[in-house]
Amino acid sequence: MLDYPFNSAIYDYGFEDFVFIAELERNHITIFHLDNSVYHLNLEKSAVFLEKHLKALNNLNKLIEQQVISPYQTALSRLRENILQLKLGGAVAFVFKLLEPKLRKNLISDNPSLLLFDLYKLGYFCSIKKF
Length: 131
Known about the structure:
This protein has five helices and no strands. By secondary structure, the chain is mainly alpha-helical.
């Protein structure tokens, strides 16, 4: 840990653990991933969870812009990169802006859709990209 400390330049929430793991992998440090189940105890309101996730996506966008990580290192950023290469980023962002209130309503409801959560993340992530 002393040889590879967390990047002190990262102070925003989200993906800091990813940057740490990427640094270890770049230095050929073997990573062993545990199959560690997660249980949702419903201690946090859905709206709070969603806001934290949006902060994390903002930080991911910043990490990519600052070239701390490659846009191809996460599934979501890789998908956005493919959308941008097809020149569809603006269209996805526009559709997201139109649908965002309805998507958000579903996500903070008692029966949120994981598919809509994935679409929300993609739409939001495309909408924060500077074109």
